[in-house]
Amino acid sequence: MMRFTTLIKHPADWMTGEGADNAIVLTSRIRLARNIAGIPFPGWAKKYQRAEALEQMRPAVEALSCMKDPFSHELDSLSSVQKQVMVERHLISREHAARGEGSAAVIERRQSVAIMINEEDHLRMQSIRPGLELSAAYEALAEVDDQLAEKLEYAFDPDLGYLTTCPTNLGTGMRASAMLHLPALVLSDQIGQVLQAVNKIGLAVRGIFGEGTESLGNLFQISNQSTLGESEETILRRLERVISQVALHERNARGKLVEDDPDMVCDKIGRAYGVLRNAWIIDSKEALNHLSLLRLGGDLGIFSDDTVRLCDELLMEIQPAHLQMHSGRKLAPEERDTIRAEIVRSRLQSLEAPDIRSINKTGGDNDSSPDLGIA
What we know:
Helices cover 45% and strands 14% of the residues. It contains 14 helices and ten strands.
């Protein structure tokens, strides 16, 4: 089995965006909730029942065709920092990290497929892909789901579909989401209108770490809210259509900002570069917001081509638990802010000053009206 140090040594495939158009849509994620028939759901189960459920599910998960030499550990065998690193990498949820005996995580080597055992439901499976690839992420997870269904009897009702702890997951048990980088919509004060339009058509908008978290670094997660009464294909088609429209609005907003106020755009990106290259103390929020502007600069041609990937790696590396793992010890917030600044300065050392003359003035049709109707 893979060790924790091996798991975190390299960024996940989806994190680097290799071969994908991830300038606006960073990642696509599919999550399926499943429970085992005849066993109390984790929230109601006694400790021995959770342990029995784990004993039944874990071998089936480890035997999946995609799980070649996976990372497979019970959560109570991991330190709090190790668990938090996995939360920051979107491999387990904050709720799962808080659970102990009877819970486990099984993660494929490339970190594209991760399975939480005994979280809110017996099984929480997820598949992540770079860019807008919801269908590909779903197909990969459907295969995992089919293989597990051959070995485990799911709790299923002919009328209600898959039975889940939370009623909002009844039916398909599927949550599909995409992480979007929307700095131009924020800078042009259109983000409120766009997100309101998304909410109106029954989709949820959350922060970088999902439900109950704020948006940092101009990153927003858009997902389906209903799972009952519609097929997986219908949910995915609607979500892909809306996310494509939001991405188009962002692309057009970038073009319009560059056309209407290039000095403001260059000033904000230049200031972000100056702070990140020279700061000796910087907290998470400030660092993420400045990296967001550097990432925008990379897309607009102000920085070299690999800047977007560098920013994506840094977005993960400067998270609190990653900093503590890097340092090999628990850090006070003030120490984290100093080490974070040091890492950012070091990684950006070779990034040349912004070339304002290279700003890319092509942006689309500049129609930024938030019409997300899907009729």
